[in-house]
Amino acid sequence: MKGTGGMKRNVPIALALVCASPAALAVAVGPARAHSHQGHEMGLQGPALEAARKEGSKQLARGRRLYGKHCASCHGIDGEGQDNWRQRKADGTFPAPPHDEAGHTWHHSDRQIFAYTKFGGQAVAPKSFKSAMPAFGKILGDRDIWAIIAHIKTFWPKALRDKRARGRGNGG
Ligand code: HEC
To answer: What does R_g of the chain's alpha carbons equal in angstroms?
Structure first.
């Protein structure tokens, strides 16, 4: 495997295809809510910052618990994914990809990750893609899903999170 171009083409995950139409997704999901309670992003200081931090760590604890319950069986407790996740299985679906640095999740905007989780792979992916990613909209509330996303971000090294925060990869 030489060059990142080849690597990219070997990532057959539906969201990679969805990236082409973030506008459509935005319509489906609506404007991003103030789901991030990290104070520094809101320019808070003093007690307000303390409160935001507390809220953030509560959200993370909830995210960790819910991730363990609903996502880890497929995506791995540390986001490591399933073996050979780039190889289509006999039934036409793919194994669950990693959510850590090795995977593709971090390439997508928060909103796209949210939509994929809430509505499931089949609703978000092109019709030709056979998805094995369940929809969680009936099991998890929006706040639950945002908490899980906050937890997934703890799988990413700081450099990667900073890169996304600057806009690279966070726009789809
Ligand atoms: C039954 C196994 C299974 C469970 C449980 C599961 N997933 Fe998935 N997930 C998959 C598979 C398989 C894919 C690969 C794409 C597809 O088939 O649509 C995937 C893809 C994804 C993607 C897209 C990743 C990418 O690289 O583009 C996200 C985001 C995601 N899952 C989030 C979650 C979250 C969050 C949970 C828990 C709430 C969860 N998944 C639970 C099987 C699962």
So the answer is: 16
Task: Let me know if 138 is exposed, middle or buried by CB neighbors in 10 A (0-12, 13-18, 19+).
Answer: exposed
Q: Is 106 in the pocket of ligand 1 (CB under 6 A)?
A: no
Give the pair of three-digit tokens for residue 113: 């990750």
Q: Is the pLDDT of residue 27 over 70?
A: no
Closest CA to 98 of 117, 83, 109: 83
CA distances from 68 to 53, 78, 121 (A): 23, 9, 20
Q: Among 124, 97, 95, which residue's Cα sits nearest to residue 27?
A: 124
**Ligand 1 near 29 CB (within 6 A):** no
**Ligand 1 contact via 147 beta carbon (within 6 Å):** no
Cβ-based neighbours of 134, under 8 Å, separated by 6 or more: 120, 121
In this prediction, residue 158 has a pLDDT band, given cuts at 50, 70 and 90, of very high
Cα of 75 to ligand 1 centre, how many Å? 7
Measured by CA distance, the residue closest to atom 6 of ligand 1 is 71
